[in-house]
Design a protein that fits this description.
- This protein is mainly alpha-helical.
- Strand 1, helix 20 and strand 2 form a beta-alpha-beta unit.
- Helix 4 runs parallel beside helix 8 and helix 5 packs antiparallel against helix 6.
Length: 527
Amino acid sequence: MNNMSTEIRNLDFKNKNFIFLAILVIITICVRLYFLPSEIPFKTDAIGYFSFAFEISKTQEFPTGILATNDGWSLFLSPIFTMIGQSDMMNLINAQRITSILLSSLTIIPVFFLCKKIVSSKYALIGAGLFGFSHKLIENSLLGITEPLYIFLITFVLLFSLSKNSNHYFISFIFLGLAAIVRYESLFFIIPLSIIFFLRFKKQKTSFLKFPFLILIFILVLLPISSLRLESNDVDGFTSHTIFNPQILNPNTYSTVAEMTDLKTETEKIQSSNSFISNSLFNILKFLGIISIPLFIFFIPSGIFNLFKTRNTDVLHLLIFGIFFIIPALYAYGREIQDARYLYVLFPIFCVISVYGLDITKKLERTKFVSLIISVIILSSILLLFYDQPDYTYDSEILHATQILLQDANGVNNYHGSSYVKIATLEKIWPNSLPLAENQRIDVLINKIPSQNFDSLEDFISDSKSSQLTHLLITENNHEAFLDDLLIDYEKYSYLEKIYDSKDHNYKNTIIILKIDYSIFEKILAE
């Protein structure tokens, strides 16, 4: 009878944890939806994924161009777009964002079970909360890009890599193959996954016989997509972007064949290599610090301290993954690509280490203490989200100005907010797809011309005429001083005609579009 009562209490305890986990997922979805900018289209990388998915939904064929690799996110979106149809562009944009939000929130579940392999269920709930309410991941999930799906898949790789049954280990290879379709650098992670397989099952005589089977499963996951990419774009998106392409791995690459003939001296090569290494190390430390703020920076040190005391094998195996996760980021940071997103894949491991540190004090087993910590996590996340809220007012206003610009311009200076040119172009030609340039990448209707390295307006216009510069878009945050001067006194330039002023629309931000009259400009230069 006593045994039966104990089993019932244990069952109730498990049910409560799963209820709390479900509540966490629902709350994280609600928080993300609250901050969703449903009336503002996305920009930058998300447009490429959107265009690829939209093309599949229209033609039911694998597109030529747009993306050479990393099309797994678009492939995932395409059936959703097909179900919604082509009626409205913003409907599809928000569908992409909401799908991203759901994946980011659902990743809480595998993170919970990953933590549960190391600590008790209550601690695992804290780990799930740390992941679900990370303000960095919440902001990222609103962008409609690859990270939510990528981290979702990688978390399952980590989860099944800690399996005690070698027969279940093949699931990790399946998920790693899927992750490689989303982001090709996942190919590199087959190294730690293989190392950990042999570390965990080295005493089993059949391990060496099973391993080729695991590699075969991994390859079979990649083959269909590889074949489609080769057929459509003449690259497989895997070997063409990794070890078989030396230009990808070499930080001292040249953009054209002509540049390769202009060889550097040995001194220049050494200086370039030293610069690459110093940039990598500096930026990796900087961005590790940034993504650790505000909560991980307090929890992780105690987790590392506890690891030194106990030397938990599962946590050590996750750290092996962590080291390999950092290597692609080192390469990107060495090339001065300033983006914390390369390190977001570390978050599931950060969550495990954080809750492992809480194991130092057993009093946190109490439900009240666990609830307190989760409450602090949620509150701090929401406060940071409000603090870091993007300027959607400016985004809305610069988007409107860009739409006006597209009606007449052939070229414009590279202004703050010019990343909306692609989506404004797509909106203009909808439901047609964005055109492709000769390199089979997305093209736009106007050229964006950098204004850096020019000392005067006249020099910029003269030099940029051949690039089809026809208009200037001026904001309160320009790249050059001579453009700032235009905002104050553009009327003194007789060859500039104002065609748009944000004040006419009672906008908060000052945005002016000026059209260049080259007939007047050239007469003035000739005088």
